[in-house]
């Protein structure tokens, strides 16, 4: 059976990415990284829930908490506050962790070489990605160029980004279509019990569910106005 | 002052690389990674000795022991034996750690973005590198291509590989010329007290000193025949 490593943060995008890899017939190896982010425990729970839902062949959890030592992001540096969500912001938000995805893909590549996997799936999304430079298609194209010269064995390894051109609403639709366990996923950057409903990640997620005409199954502390309005409208129908 | 991160394993090549970066006028930030390799403690000592010799502005030591979890190399997996050195071997040796240098460069890049360094120096050597795929020039070219699209800030960051086309003897000569603290460096893959004199790394190092007409200042358990002969010849002169 062909093997694929799927990077599963525990968020909605990675949950749907796992669903896509499974649907393509791959045997799943799930990789999760902890880097001292605020919601580390909640994300880890989501990871194991998703792994068990998909009966993953193997899981690997890696601490890359050196990113916390290095600092420079609100996700890992407690001195920098997580901004309230603003979907019209133009600059790169403070939650950006420098070069994070390259760190994670490098770990995945080391693992892929040992188990001889032929694909690494990552749920990066270019349009809805808050402008993170390591979520753009060109980044993955260049990473694949690197892979083409960097491996000891010719295992045809490539990074796949099935969501890269999707909008959040398409991801929700895809997840629903493939029966992905969205209820097990966790996207909030700020809280672990109920999602905050305020950070960029919560706003993007709820906007996605709204635009897909679906209802987000996870609990929220409070909803942003647009989603509240949507719920009222739905109930009214 | 322009900042450079130098990857310092503690070996001779990284020691000379630090000397070159210093000589070019950079302020030095030294990065060392532990990955559960057999000689971890000895390498770490060499790292701090070199950092203090060069009065580094900052040091960062990062554990990437997930590479041990992933396995696949004699350097990190105790079930795989370190082969006796053989400089004529054609295949990639068992000490190859899959995609290791990309993992390390990714960490360096995260750090570089935070401190706004403009260079990352790595002492990779193509010709004398035992065939590791991530020691070839093309690997670094592709990594620089990746950097050109991957950063949030345009800090002009590039990876420099000043030794890439050198032979070990040129590295020894360069080190002697720049007064690099070769006596503080450690290259052996196998031992921590005295260098074994048998592994690939010891053989390459001693061959380099011999061909440069120099004498290696670190202690050895035993010398390979070619170096023994060279010493006798030198004494005879």
Provide an overview of this structure.
- The structure is a homodimer of 237-residue chains.
- The first copy, chain A, has 237 residues and is of the alpha/beta class.
- Chain A has a single domain (3-189), classed as HUPs (Rossmann fold), CATH 3.40.50.
- Chain A has 8 helices and 5 strands; from the N terminus they run βαβαβααβαβααα.
- In chain A, helix 2 links the parallel strand 2 (27-34) and strand 3 (58-63).
- Chain A is globular and about 60 Å long.
- The model of chain A has no long low-confidence stretch (mean pLDDT 88).
- At the A-B interface, strand 3, helix 3, helix 4 and helix 5 of A face strand 3, helix 3, helix 4 and helix 5 of B.
- Chains A, B: It catalyses: 7-carboxy-7-carbaguanine + NH4(+) + 2 ATP = 7-cyano-7-carbaguanine + 2 AMP + 2 diphosphate + 2 H(+).
- Chains A, B: This is 7-cyano-7-deazaguanine synthase.
Instruction: Give the total of beta strands of chain A.
Output: 5
Q: What characterizes the major β-sheet of chain A?
A: 5 strands, parallel
Query: What's the total helix number of chain A?
Result: 8
Please, what is the average pLDDT of chain A?
A: 88
Return Rg of chain A in Å. Answer: 17 Å
What is the 3D shape of chain A?
globular
Which strand order does the major sheet of chain A show? 3-2-1-4-5
The second-level CATH architecture of chain A is: 3-Layer(aba) Sandwich
Largest interface: A-B, 40 and 40 residues
Q: What is the beta-strand fraction of chain A?
A: 5-15%
What series of H and E elements makes up the topology of chain A? EHEHEHHEHEHHH
EC number (chains A, B): 6.3.4.20
Enzyme class (chains A, B): ligase
Catalytic activity (chains A, B): 7-carboxy-7-carbaguanine + NH4(+) + 2 ATP = 7-cyano-7-carbaguanine + 2 AMP + 2 diphosphate + 2 H(+)
Keywords (chains A, B): ATP-binding, Ligase, Metal-binding, Nucleotide-binding, Queuosine biosynthesis, Zinc
């Amino acid at each position: 059976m062909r093997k694929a490593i799927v990077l599963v943060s525990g968020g909605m995008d990675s949950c749907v990415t796992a669903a896509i890899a499974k649907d393509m017939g791959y045997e799943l190896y799930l990789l999760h990284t902890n880097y001292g982010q605020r919601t580390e425990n909640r994300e880890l729970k989501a990871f194991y829930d998703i792994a068990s839902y998909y009966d993953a062949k193997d899981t690997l959890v890696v601490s890359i908490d050196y990113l916390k030592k290095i600092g420079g992001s609100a996700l890992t540096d407690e001195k920098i506050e997580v901004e309230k969500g603003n979907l019209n912001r133009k600059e790169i938000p403070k939650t950006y962790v420098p070069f994070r995805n390259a760190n994670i893909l490098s770990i995945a590549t080391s693992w892929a070489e040992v188990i001889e996997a032929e694909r690494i799936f990552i749920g990066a999304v270019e349009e809805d990605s808050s402008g993170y430079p390591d979520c753009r298609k060109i980044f993955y194209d260049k990473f694949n160029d690197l892979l083409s010269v960097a491996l000891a064995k010719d295992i045809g390894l490539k990074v796949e980004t099935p969501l890269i051109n999707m909008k959040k609403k398409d991801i929700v639709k895809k997840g629903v279509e493939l029966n992905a366990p969205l209820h097990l996923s966790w996207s909030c950057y700020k809280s672990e019990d109920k999602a905050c409903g305020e950070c960029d990640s919560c706003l993007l997620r709820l906007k996605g569910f709204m635009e897909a005409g679906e209802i987000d199954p996870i609990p929220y502390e409070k909803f942003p106005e647009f989603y509240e309005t949507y719920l009222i409208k739905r109930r009214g129908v």
